[in-house]
Design a protein that fits this description.
The structure is a homodimer. Chain A is of the alpha+beta class. Helix content of chain A is about 30%, strand content about 30%. The longest helix of chain A has 18 residues. The interface between A and B is large, with 82 and 82 residues.
Amino acid sequence: VPRHEFDLIERLRQSASAHPRVTLGIGDDAAVVRFLAPAEALVTVDLLMEGVDFTLDSAAPERVGRKALAVSLSDIAAMAGRPLACFVAVALPRRGGFELGVALEAGLSKLALEFDVALAGGDTNTWDGPLVASVTVLGETTGRGAVRRSGARPGDWVMATGAFGGSLLGKHLDFTPRVREALALHAAVTLTSMIDASDGLAADLGHLLDESGAGAEIDEAAIPIAAAAHAAAARDNRPPLAHALSDGEDFELIFTVSPADGARLHERPLFDTPISRLGEIVSGSGCRLRTRDGSEVALPSEGWKHAFDEPP
Amino acid sequence: VPRHEFDLIERLRQSASAHPRVTLGIGDDAAVVRFLAPAEALVTVDLLMEGVDFTLDSAAPERVGRKALAVSLSDIAAMAGRPLACFVAVALPRRGGFELGVALEAGLSKLALEFDVALAGGDTNTWDGPLVASVTVLGETTGRGAVRRSGARPGDWVMATGAFGGSLLGKHLDFTPRVREALALHAAVTLTSMIDASDGLAADLGHLLDESGAGAEIDEAAIPIAAAAHAAAARDNRPPLAHALSDGEDFELIFTVSPADGARLHERPLFDTPISRLGEIVSGSGCRLRTRDGSEVALPSEGWKHAFDEPP
């Protein structure tokens, strides 16, 4: 019995659970999501490609499906928003595509359930190419609005959740998007700017500084280095600090707050996820690193720049 | 000078024009789109793959970019909604990817401008694979709500815009999504059900009937056959009618209305796009075709089913 895209869609449709905000989910030409009052909708989309963002040799498709949603939830978190619904477009390899689609959906749906996000639509295709999955997440801002990258001001503390580096050893597939942390922070203090770390701590802090038109001074000793960064360092002899600054795919939040708010967060933690004060915003541009020996160096914002080849 | 994904994103950001409903567009972690009152958001996503939905040999990338948006606008039209913003995720071939991305965006943006849709975000990636483009469109319902596939009732007229068949000869790249027609119809009459024809007239009418729990009787003589269906027939010796019923990618609207509303639409056309009465909804299920010689045959809903290979 040949299996068809329609069978996969019908399966998804059957398994999709009701969501109070989704009037119409999988099965029509578009999904309908209700906004109960004048509202700001948040939308983000990410595309994951086999061989670039994951390999099916090293990651079970459930983990790939989970990651495909998690990266977009992380973007909603970076705006301090609430995710509502997700939409999944996939190009499945023709051979074994049905089973792959089912497994992807299982991993994605488990995370969606955890964050009360409806799987409300998508587009299922097959081809002779590798697996490609695009996930769109629709969310909403809280009453306090969206937190942008652009509001950091001199004097603000630069803070971050969690620890950095070595994500490719596993965390990049299994990280928990910081949605709850972002909402808790947004409710408790005034977040002047925020970004999620996907390109790397140095690169993403650089983006935040560029958008804010400001600089930063960061203490080497304050940078939270993940255990995985040490493991990665043992493999390639680059210092753990270099991994923490440039590996990417950490999916932690980097944010700025006033010193008073920062001190409050340190005194009374809002959640179990650790937060660190990395340094402070200064006028000017770019980031400087205060090293342990007391010197200061410019911190190059080397992240995950994927160079295009020059055309012939 | 190597060119980077960031350069392409920066270019898109510079060229994106302001849109009254987009508070925050390209350049942050998510876009912010305002809903001015309690509202129903419409969301649809489509994924187009090189070698499946288009080939870059036969279609300039501007046309591919245009099509990538047009198919999603057609989905919003099928709900009788207003499109607001689009989000484009691409996997660009590493070689020549920058130029390809610029050309795609040019084609897409031209159509977006035509429909007052903001290009508000996306995800730009490169890899060694073929071109993949995913377009998400966020829209809103009018005050009359969304038109679903499921509301057709016995006695309703089955109607359609435009003509069918032979789309692969060119229309599939250059069609005009029926957004304006759908909004005009929705304002003037009660649309009991609607779908856009992407899988083929027979298949998509079949979807509408399945969702409505009803059947239909269609007149062979009433089916609007496109000139391109005749051209396709001349090439492969299949009858033009077969092309009209099963070719797919017509992106016309198939909809149902009461006989009174149908008659009104015939008497006073709302727009230049022709509309046809194909037949009527009956109780039961499936579609029957009344042929020119007065006989009746079951109309198989053969569309664009892409069979998966069985796993080994």
